[in-house]
């Protein structure tokens, strides 16, 4: 059932097993996955279609690197997937590891924990399989890779056929699902805790026409993206001055993007060698792919740089016959000073607006320069490119990156509450029933577009919450150790994966 919360005939005081805030890909899939086991209330700030009045809630101040706060995300049923570009990529194995040259790097678990969910995510995203092997895809398409030696990692992005719009895909299903009640045009503005500050007891939402709702959930999941999730936690300051989950001043810190840089000194001299780099190639079941290239994990360690991928692109004004530019999508290093906080301004619902201070650090700058030099030199050696001398000059000193519309890291995952906002099960440290779904929990962000990894985490969280709802037995203990997976569905039968 989908209800417009502005409608005066709709009752706005409810209780549910699970309340999920945000109907983007994370919130929608989590709701669907849990709906056979629990009653779900899904609360979405936007409507079914985009609405300029609702979009005013996204306004805020950007005081660091240039970052528009409205165009980089979408409010409404389906979240930002209504405007996303569909680039799917996998994290590399070493993206999950602690790297001595990258401060605050590493996840509490390795890639194998998420790999379990990859084929499910690939199916969801219409990729026709989980093949991200650039060499295999090139072989099957009878294409040779321009650079392929041990120092480099040929890679692909995959695109679904068609690229999925979660709102369009799930609208009908959510209208009919008796276990999910969705409120649209309902913006969560506050979270209340019990007197011990260890349980969420209620959440409050408001509508643009002055209505207020109260939900009493057993479990609350915030799935509002990397800017609004910390904003809600920081705004919820009526009982704890610093906000909910913010005992260690970590909520909103470590904001990470995937900064993009044009490698201006590099010109391709043999663009015809780069088949399906600037134009997509066809692959399985009508899905498509694009090629790119990174330094191997060993080469990254030797140079002490973060992860990155070289890609080729044309700007909108260029025609298909022009030689494409070379650019790098970078992993941004975790940086506590790159952060989301609250401004003094309030929006029309009384929530303090966002203040974003997006900042890069020295490692980001050095990583761009070293990676560009290393890949550029290899292209020159192979007669594929020309590097101008300006690689050594001030070009690298005043870097102004482009953003990639990926808002990550602001409620990072860590085993210890001193180092992160959520534990390895995505549960907010210190609270028994508050969870976060989405890219804000990524402690390190790879070079790769986030949605593929984010959805794997959502499926894992769904598995974990089913256990919690049905038998109280944890799938992963807070220190990341696996426990036996046993839980029951609502009918009392063993849940089958
Ligand atoms: C232009 C663009 C292009 C992109 N391209 C790619 C790409 O090619 N590949 C890729 O991997 N990723 C891409 N992304 C990122 C991708 O869209 C996100 O990773 C994905 O949508 C995240 O899903 P989510 O559910 O976590 O958050 P979102 O999609 O942001 O959804 C969050 C939802 O929460 C709602 N919400 C926020 N605050 C509140 C509140 N207080 N109360 C109630 N509801 C609230 C919002 O209205 C929204 O619907 C792109 C994003 C944009 C904007």
Give a description of the structure.
The structure is a single chain. The chain has two domains: 1-126 and 164-257 and 332-359 and 405-497, FAD/NAD(P)-binding domain (3-Layer(bba) Sandwich), CATH 3.50.50; 129-161 and 259-330 and 361-400. The chain has ten helices and 19 strands. It has helices spanning 25-34, 52-55, 111-115, 118-124, 134-140, 166-176, 225-235, 297-303, 362-381, 451-470, and strands spanning 2-4, 13-21, 40-43, 60-62, 152-159, 180-184, 187-193, 200-206, 212-222, 260-262, 266-268, 281-282, 288-295, 308-313, 325-330, 339-346, 352-357, 385-387, 434-436. Strands 1, 2, 3, 6, 7, 8, 9 and 19 form an eight-stranded mixed sheet that branches. A three-stranded mixed sheet has the order 4-17-16, with helices on one face. α4 (118-124) packs across α10. The longest helix has 20 residues, at 362-381. Bound molecules: flavin-adenine dinucleotide.
């Amino acid at each position: 059932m989908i209800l417009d919360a502005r409608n005066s005939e709709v009752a706005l005081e409810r209780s549910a097993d699970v309340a999920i805030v945000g109907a983007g890909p994370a919130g929608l899939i989590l709701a669907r996955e849990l709906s056979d086991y629990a009653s779900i209330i899904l609360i979405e700030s936007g409507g079914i279609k985009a609405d300029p009045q609702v979009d005013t809630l996204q306004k805020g101040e950007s005081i660091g690197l240039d970052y528009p706060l409205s165009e980089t995300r979408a409010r409404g049923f389906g979240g930002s997937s209504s405007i996303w570009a569909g680039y799917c990529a996998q994290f590399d194995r070493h993206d999950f590891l602690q790297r001595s040259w990258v401060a605050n790097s590493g996840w509490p678990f390795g890639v194998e924990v998420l790999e379990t969910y990859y084929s499910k995510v690939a199916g969801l995203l219409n990729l026709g399989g989980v093949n991200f092997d650039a060499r295999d895809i090139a072989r099957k398409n009878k294409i040779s890779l321009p650079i392929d030696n041990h120092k480099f990692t040929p890679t692909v992005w995959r695109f679904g056929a068609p690229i999925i719009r979660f709102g369009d895909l799930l609208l009908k299903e959510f209208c009919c699902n008796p276990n999910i009640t969705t409120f649209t045009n309902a913006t969560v503005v506050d979270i209340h805790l019990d007197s011990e500050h260890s349980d969420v007891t209620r959440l409050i939402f408001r509508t643009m026409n002055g209505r207020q709702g109260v939900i009493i959930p057993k479990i609350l999941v915030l799935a509002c993206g990397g800017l609004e999730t910390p904003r809600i936690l920081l705004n919820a300051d009526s009982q704890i001055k610093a906000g909910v989950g913010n005992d260690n001043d970590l909520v909103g810190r470590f904001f990470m993007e995937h900064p993009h840089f044009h490698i201006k000194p590099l010109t391709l001299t043999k663009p015809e060698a780069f088949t399906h780099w600037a134009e997509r190639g066809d692959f399985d079941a009508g899905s498509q792919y694009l090629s790119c290239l990174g330094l191997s994990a060993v080469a990254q360690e030797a140079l002490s740089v973060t992860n990155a991928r070289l890609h080729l692109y044309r700007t909108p004004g260029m025609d298909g016959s022009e030689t494409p530019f070379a650019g790098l999508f970078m992993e941004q290093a975790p940086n506590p000073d790159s952060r989301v906080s609250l401004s003094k301004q309030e929006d029309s619902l009384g929530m303090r607006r966002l203040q974003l201070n997006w900042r890069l650090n020295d490692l980001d700058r050095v990583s761009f320069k070293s990676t560009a030099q290393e890949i550029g030199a290899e292209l020159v050696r192979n007669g594929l490119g020309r590097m101008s001398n300006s690689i050594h000059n001030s070009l690298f000193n005043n870097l102004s990156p482009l953003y990639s519309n990926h808002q990550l890291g602001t409620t990072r995952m860590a085993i210890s509450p001193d180092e992160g906002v959520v534990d390895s099960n995505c549960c907010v440290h210190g609270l028994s029933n508050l969870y976060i779904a989405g890219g804000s929990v990524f402690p390190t962000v790879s070079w790769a577009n986030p949605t593929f990894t984010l959805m794997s985490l959502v499926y894992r969280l769904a598995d974990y919450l089913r256990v919690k709802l049905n038998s109280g037995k944890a799938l992963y203990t807070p220190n990341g150790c696996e426990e036996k997976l046993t839980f029951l569905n609502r009918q009392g039968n063993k849940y089958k994966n």
